[in-house]
Amino acid sequence: IPTLIMRSIHLMFALGLVFLIYPTFKNQDRTKIPIYDWVFFALSLSSFIYLFVEYDNIMTTRGGIPNTMDIAMSILTVLLVLEGARRVTGLILPILALIFLAYPFFSHAEFLPRIMMTREFDFGDIFGQIYTKTEGLFSTAIGASVQYIFLFILFGAFLGKSGMGQFFNDLSLALAGHRQGGPAKVAVISSAFMGSINGSAVANVVGTGAFTIPLMKKIGYEKNFAGAVEASSSIGGQILPPVMGASAFIMAETTGISYGTIALAAAIPALLFFLGSLAQVHFRAGRSNLKGIPKPDLPRIKEVLKEGGHLMIPLIALVWMLGSGVPVANTAFYTILITIAVSWLRKSTRMGLKDIITALEEGTRQSLSTIVACGVVGIIIAVVNLTSFGSTLTAAITQVGAGSLFLTLFLTMIASIILGMGLPSIPAYIITATMAAPALAEFGLPILVAHLFVFYYGIFANITPPVALASFAAAGLSGGNAMRTSFISVRLAIAGFIVPFLFVYQPALLMVDTTNVATNAVDFPMASIGSIILVSIIAIIGIVGLSAAIEGYFSTNLLVVERIILGAASLGMIIPETYSTIIGTIVVAVIFIINFYKNKKESNKVIVNI
What we know:
Largest sheet: none
Number of strands: 0
Oligomer: single chain
Strand content: under 5%
Radius of gyration: 25 Å
């Protein structure tokens, strides 16, 4: 099937389903479909039918130059996609797309800064780019959805229907439920696993949060903190190999770097992120004297593995096939079949025909928001390609960065967070990779490092105020304040905001040597084991120290002065400079030792008094 036709089938049928499933307004009667939504459905299909019928004329006879009917169909399709996106993602993404869409109409105007001025474009230039080429609505964003995203969301739905979500929850409870602040650790672990597979932070918050948030509140965690733990952990799942919410495959296609290299490079940074989250919930529990769930009330590891351990087989098969070079789309399809087959090994997980149909339905429903968002991202990509706005943004960041790598990294971080606001994780990566990553190439950073850097911050936009979709969803479940939950989510994810800077300056964290390769390199030698271990240990101590400083607790409460010194020393360890690392390590160790003996002394006093 020609690429344009294949991608248009995917987008237009998804769009048609959006108009039948999602009402125009949230409080609208959902028991019947209004006649105008049937009209929208028909118009969505007509857009694909037109491309199918006129494909040869568009590609050959008209030589890519759109006629009046092409432009009319393009405008209609853009309006349909924007309305569909408004229904499933809210107003932020359509407004962002409209701002970009307006740019080429005025990009030749003299009131614009010179750096943003372009030649004059007409309707044919703009809407032809959007509709009749694979650089607009049917760009690589929809291509990624066709090849990877939809299949892995479907895979996640089948895993959920087979009982994988419950298995992860039970396993997490068995492993960490009895420990200090156990339910919060359960939330971090289970959300990490499921978030990596299902590709949607918000869907993961809603899915696992319905179980973990009430547990956290039950043992005494404050409701905003409980929601923030779930939101930040669900975001973290998107950066966790092997699946990384399907983003690993999109990054592989975009950069030309092998999937195996990307998964390897992402492993330690992801583990450091979750170490920071676990450390903070642990220290918060210690400061508030929050105990875990009594062991008798928890499932036993042996029983959990006996009942649901077979559900790990599809994940093991997934990793094996990807490592063996099986095409990603084939791998996703095979793992769905394996999931169905494996579910029959035990009666409690067995999937019947009804379960299979339900999984297909749920997977499709879950994918609609991502597919339509990818379509809207295509409008932005069309404008970027037509006007070279990406180059303009790169030049602006580089100019303001004034030759400073750190300042350029900081500006790129801000740009990535802004560009990722209101977007599902995958479209957020596609936009930041298109517009923000090239700025880092100006400093000679390898493409792997640049893309991982913007990938982190584009995803973290889901918990960063003022538009924090994952945090807002978690607040809805916890009954907390949405903005307060968002700020706490950022605090819990502080390691994730620091780690990208760390692997730029300390590339051994990526486990591959990126120091002596070309900017566009796709093959990397393995970093030395010694350098990987050394950098990892320093990062671990620094992140644990920073987490303790943030929560004001290690073995016992920390004084304000101790927190300030500990925080500064922990950040000093992360700075890639020998003396600051040594001094920071010594200071962190001293404060930890002092705090440990302070706690021991306080405990002895309590025993004596008793």
